[in-house]
Amino acid sequence: MIVQTGSGGTGAVVTFLTHIAFFDYGGRAYYFLKVANEGAEPVQLNRIWFATDPEVSVRNPQRPLPTRLDPGDLFETWKLVEELPHDPRLPYLARLLLDDRSVIESLPNLDVLPAGSVGGAGNPLRPLIPSVAAENRRDGNLVEKEWDVFISYAHEDGDVAASLAGALRDLGLRTWFDKFVLRVGDNLAFKLAEAIDRSAFSIVILSRAFFESGWGKYEITGALNRSVAGDQVVLPIWHGITEEEARAYNPSLAGVVALDTVKASVQKMASEIHEVVTEARRLAT
């Protein structure tokens, strides 16, 4: 819901949306509650709760309240579904209290794809844009990263990785791909850790060969750690594997929006990734 609040006709414009998702594929479901300040003034968020009977407060030590949102900032918190009473109206029952005592009512976020959905048709990656923007922004400012995207892959999948890296680079994205960057004598572990840290977005080409790769596990662990810390978004690309195989390898990876080389060409995937990164950068600036 979009609400104007404040005085003098120049109040803040706030959106408050909810959706259900999972941190781990097949795991416990959470209600995610996302607040965006789309106006020209700062706003303070004081409290979030569900107006159920009885009322249920949303208290998340990882997302403490009160907090201030500058123009363009996003705030997201979550609550276990099992801790809420069963009510089909829940997406509409979340409430947000602002500093001026305005109470904002939630609406369901219809732009978010269900966890585990596979892209490759239309623009399935667009729901990632706000997350990429938020996770590359600190204290109202864009966090400059050396690389737009980091590509992780197994040696056996080098052809598809090279094609994707070339397509992304041709579209103007600063692409970390080992064949572009690494030189003889480089410390591989150090260079990989540095690249993951300095990239805004990680792409992981998941295949059976990747599952067997020691370096693949090293790279994906680093990317996921950064994602948990709020500095990275990980985009899996399924390459010749099934959903069940991805889920068995790493539930956290299988539980997010993904692309599939069977369903989308390299150029199509590159175009969608380019849109996410460039739009997120624009929003974060």
What does this structure look like?
The chain is of the alpha/beta class. It has two domains: 2-108, Immunoglobulin-like (Sandwich); 126-284, Rossmann fold, CATH 3.40.50.10140. It is built from ten helices and 17 strands. It has helices at residues 90-93, 129-135, 158-170, 178-181, 188-197, 208-211, 214-228, 243-249, 251-254, 266-284; strands at residues 2-5, 12-22, 29-37, 43-50, 56-57, 67-69, 74-80, 94-98, 103-105, 107-108, 137-138, 141-142, 147-152, 175-176, 199-206, 233-238, 259-260. Strands 1, 2, 3, 7 and 10 form a five-stranded mixed beta sheet that branches. Strands 4, 5, 6, 8 and 9 form a five-stranded antiparallel beta sheet that branches. A hairpin with a 2-residue loop joins β11 and β12. α2 crosses α10, α3 (158-170) packs across α10 (266-284) and α5 runs parallel beside α7 (214-228). The longest helix is centred in the C-terminal third of the chain and has 19 residues, at 266-284. It starts with a strand and ends with a helix. Residues 1-10, 113-123, 182-188 and 228-232 have low confidence and may be disordered.
Which features characterize this protein?
alpha/beta; Toll_tir_struct_dom_sf; Immunoglobulin-like; 5-stranded antiparallel sheet; Rossmann fold; 29% strand; 2 domains; 285 residues
- The CATH superfamily of the largest domain is Toll/interleukin-1 receptor homology (TIR) domain
Helix-strand makeup class: alpha/beta
Mean pLDDT: 75
Look at the structure and give the CATH class of the largest domain.
Alpha Beta
Helix content: 25-40%
Which residue ranges are poorly predicted, with pLDDT under 50 across at least 5 consecutive positions? 1-10, 113-123, 182-188, 228-232
Distance between the termini: 24 Å
